[in-house]
Amino acid sequence: MFVGVELLEQLEEVADVPFQICSLRTRLLRQEDNGRQTSSLASVFVDTFAASLIQFEKRLYANTANLSTLPETKRLCRLLDLHAKFCQYDDILAEEVGREGSHLYLLRIIQFPISDDDHQISEADQDMVMEMQDRACSIAATYDTFPMRCTPLTFEEFQQRLPIKFDVDPISLDESKVDGTTRTESILIHQVTKRQSAQEDVGFVMWPSAVVLARWIATNAPVFQASKSVLEIGAGCGLAGLLAARLQQKWQTKRKGQLGTNTLNGEFSVTLSDFNPCVLENLKRNIAINNLSDICTIKGLDFFDQPGLATLTDDSEQGWVDTDKVLQKPVDIVLGADIICQPSDAAAASRAIYNALKPGGCSYIVCATSAHRFGVEVFPSECARMGLNITSYNVASLYDGSLLNYGLEHTTGYVDGMAMIMFTIEKPLQ
Question: I need a labelling partner for 227 at 20 to 30 A (CA). Which of 17, 53, 78, 336 fits?
């Protein structure tokens, strides 16, 4: 299968819009009936790239005049531009294209003969070929390894690299009060494609508590539409924070329409944070594929770097410290899902929450119980030691257990009957 004119034009329209590239990747992935051949955006692109290069090479080595005006040349240049955009806007697709063999063809372009005894082309055509080589070199420079070995992915591997679609359905509390805020929201989640090699890599995958917290957020949407600043700590893949950002984004759009203005008083924002650089890169990708870059950002945050009660009392000095050691402003709401794996995490997380919240702010945390996560049992006492007011709830008792009815099959580490606990934490007004 090759990229036809229509698909090429479609690719050019969406190549710099990550969430549209993601949709196209999903739509094109299919397995042939014999189960052996896979059609994916990466394989289709590379097949087309190879065929276009061969056509161009025939013209080049035949010393054809006016190369720059030929359809073969223009098509190859368009494909090079697309390859560059894949590298800039979708590193997952860029890796797939490389593994499908695009680097072999980039090398051939880089090694084109400009002029020798057998190949004499005009000065204008030499300039065009050198420009093409420059494009190929710039693409090569974006890869950590070049050339990549040609190791095509299987259909199952392509499937695993696609984002998971979570349709987060709010629990209907009163059918007579359903309004525009109680609709299902779809969030796309890429998991980190690298293998987990250490405890620090837990944010590479989706965990059950994130799905539970996301559904609680959807059910309590007005809480997030009334709060101007939200921070998710230990965000991992970012489902909860991304949903909060979607709710804020839609509420802002609605309010701007009602008020007839392009701006609202005050800044609304959601920050997704983690301490692992690979997780932060994946969070950036998930923000982009959900079209939330206008309201959602990432920051490095390590629980163990937060000063806790040592924070100065002057309001101008309140806040949490990012991994660049920069003091960030406190927020209205702090979210967290499965952020405790050992007792020291509980102490550090309570300090992070204390520093991150404004006085009067609230935090909503969901974790598996101590039967599955060490350290959760000491979290309430650690929060109390920080002067935070904490209340805990058995998740199974909330909304008749409906928070546990959806999406957990897409997560890592879930077992039937897993007990979860939700904490609501308030920072007293000072």
Answer: 17
For range 111-119, the mean pLDDT = 72
**pTM summary value:** 0.84
Nearest-angstrom CA–CA distance, 314 and 100: 57
Mean pLDDT in residue range 49-69: 89
Q: What is the pLDDT of residue 180?
A: 46
- How far the first Cα of the chain sits from its last, in Å, is 66
CA gap 401, 85 in Å, rounded: 45
Residue with tokens 């957020």: 217
CA–CA separation, 92 vs 71, rounded Å?
Answer: 30
Query: Closest Cα to residue 273, out of 182, 378, 352?
Result: 352
Question: CB neighbours (10 Å) of residue 44?
Answer: 18
Q: 393: part of which helix (H) or strand (E)?
A: strand 389-394
Q: How far apart are the C-alpha atoms of 430 and 420, rounded to whole Å?
A: 32
For residue 401, give Cα distances in angstroms to 150, 207, 212, 397: 49, 18, 10, 6
Say which residues have a Cβ less than 8 Å from residue 38's Cβ, sequence separation at least 6.
29, 30, 31, 32, 152, 153, 154, 155, 158
Asked whether the beta carbons of 184 and 214 are under 8 A apart, the reply is no
Q: Name the 3-class secondary structure at 79.
A: helix
The pLDDT tens digits for 386-412 are: 999 999 999 999 999 999 888 888 787
Contact 133, 109 (CB under 8 A): yes
